[in-house]
Amino acid sequence: MPFIRRNASGVIDSLHRRDEGGTEFLPDDHPDVRAFLGAGPVVHDEGFASLDADFIRVIEDVIDTLISKNVINITDLPVEAQTKLFGRKGYRERASKDALKLFGDDGPAI
Question: 62 and 26 in one domain?
């Protein structure tokens, strides 16, 4: 969250990490800060975000299906993708006991 300095017109002139006297504090997502950084306005479209979350789940399920049918191996994916998939998989397994397990059971179910 930056401290800002405005010019005579009231437009942000500079961003600062610390209060340098006479600066104003604004949150990162404030429209003036986003405009200064060249970012567009924050869009709060819950419906679209929900669709994205649902689509991510579909893609994850497709990847699981391809792995379970030996079409691809988890190691065929980039390390970053593997890390994200394992993170989501771990979360889903904790949240749902019937999620697909990529490497079988590590022990008895509790």
Answer: no
Residue 30 tokens, joined: 């404030």
Residue with tokens 């994850």: 60
**Can you tell me the distance from the alpha carbon of 105 to that of 99, in angstroms, rounded to the nearest whole number?**
12
- Flag whether 101 is in a domain: no
Q: Do 52 and 79 belong to one domain?
A: yes
What proportions of the chain, in percent to the nearest 5, are helix, strand and coil?
Answer: 45, 10, 45
Most confident of 3-7, 37-41, 78-82, 103-107: 78-82
Q: How far apart are CA 2 and CA 23, in angstroms?
A: 10
User: Could you read off the pLDDT of 48-93 as tens digits, one per residue?
Assistant: 777 888 888 899 999 989 999 999 999 999 999 999 888 888 877 7
Q: Which of 30, 29, 36 is nearest to 9 (CA)?
A: 36
